[in-house]
Design goal:
The chain is α/β, with parallel strands linked by helices. The chain has 2 domains: 204 residues, Alpha-Beta Complex (Quinone Oxidoreductase, Chain A, domain 1); 126 residues, Rossmann fold (3-Layer(aba) Sandwich), CATH 3.40.50.720. Helix content is 27%, strand content 26%. It contains 11 helices and 18 strands. Strands 3, 4, 5, 9, 10, 17 and 18 form a 7-stranded mixed β-sheet that branches. The chain has a 6-stranded parallel β-sheet with strand order 13-12-11-14-15-16, sandwiched between helices. The protein has a 3-stranded mixed β-sheet with strand order 6-7-8, with no helix packed on it. The longest helix has 14 residues.
């Protein structure tokens, strides 16, 4: 049996480069993909560092992959060996009520490859090869690089949160709290959708500089100025949409403070179980719409691919570092630094 190099997580802070068996397609619809690029998500970093605890050991994380079909199993009809592909990191049964009503990310029998959420967690893409099901693959546009294509999943989440769930409209004044890689993608989606004033808020000057380069009209650092006062100086009538893409509870609290009547707001970035307070009566009379968004769907993946293929969003602009798989430990160290955006692994 042939082997491949993979980064195997045996325990928190115990990531080992090992040679493990190359997976083989056995069940109906299974495909082996030679991984060409995989982004490191903050949830991957949190799993490796022990910040996220819902991890089953040993495991191979990494859930933002692109690659080339290396082998097909029985029953595969839409892909051939040599096809360049993008992989959605979550699979669904297609038959439960959630799947049948378009919410496949709620699937009662869902699984994930290299990610988190469902109990059924399968080996991910910090490896030379990965086993995937045909239903999770998308054809990569020829003009799209593998590195850019690897960001389809986070871009799809940004589209789903900003457009599908928060229903951003042409000309809306938008505030993005947290402009790391996912916040930048949300901002780029809002810009492509015709945002009016587009305000980036972050405690990192490095992140704010990137946001301004990529289309933000204004940048605010709440560590050095009153963020609410500054937002209302820029947008006297208040924002139409506020999206929290940062993670800390303080970002959610700031989002609540920024609301005016009719403001839509999306709890997008926080994944930890923390609480914040709402004035019930005020929330009632403000009549804003609160949304949240997690994961992705085939629709969102398709839309993200279309955005990249049409040249509306260039995801390579948010990539700051690239490492071969053999240097994944250095990549993880970079993930802990403030002066980075998306980090890519090229197995």
């Amino acid at each position: 049996m042939s082997t491949m190099l993979a980064a195997v997580l045996h325990d928190f802070n115990q990531l080992e480069l090992e040679h493990v068996p190359v997976p083989e397609p056995q069940s109906l619809g299974e495909i082996i993909v030679r991984i060409k690029a995989c982004g490191i998500c903050a949830t991957d970093y949190k799993a490796i560092r022990g910040i996220r605890r819902n991890v089953q050991f040993p495991c191979i994380v990494g859930h933002e992959p692109s690659g080339v079909v290396a082998e097909i199993g029985p029953g595969v009809s839409h892909f051939r060996v040599g096809d360049e592909v993008i992989i959605q990191p979550s699979g669904s049964c297609g038959f439960c009520e959630h799947c049948r009503t378009g919410n496949s990310h709620y699937c009662e029998h869902a699984y994930t490859t290299g990610g988190d959420g469902p109990e059924d967690t399968r080996p991910g893409a910090f490896a030379e090869y990965m086993l995937a099901e045909e239903q999770t693959l998308f054809h990569k546009p020829a003009a799209l690089s593998f590195d850019a294509a690897a960001l389809t999943e986070p871009l799809s989440g940004a589209w789903k949160g900003v457009i599908q769930y928060s229903n951003m409209q042409l000309g809306d004044d938008v505030v993005i709290i947290g402009v790391g890689s996912i916040g930048l993608l949300c901002m780029m989606v809002a810009r492509a959708a015709g945002a009016g004033r587009l305000i980036a808020i972050d405690t990192s000057d490095y992140a704010l500089e990137n946001a301004l380069k990529l289309g933000a009209t204004h940048a605010i650092n709440p560590a050095t100025e009153d963020a609410r006062a500054r937002v209302y100086e820029i947008i006297p009538g208040g924002p139409d949409l506020v999206l929290e893409a940062a993670g800390p509870i303080e970002a959610v609290e700031l989002m609540v403070e920024l609301r005016r009547r009719g403001t839509n707001w999306n709890v997008f970035g926080i994944t930890t179980h923390e609480t914040f307070e709402l004035d019930g009566g005020l929330t009632h009379f403000l009549e804003g719409r609160m949304d949240a968004s997690f994961g992705t769907t085939p629709l969102a993946m398709s839309r993200a691919i279309r955005l990249m293929e049409a040249g509306l969003i260039d995801t390579e602009q948010v990539i700051s570092h690239r490492f071969p798989l053999s240097e994944i430990h250095q990549a993880i160290e970079v993930m802990g630094r403030p002066d980075r955006n998306k980090v890519i692994i090229n197995p």
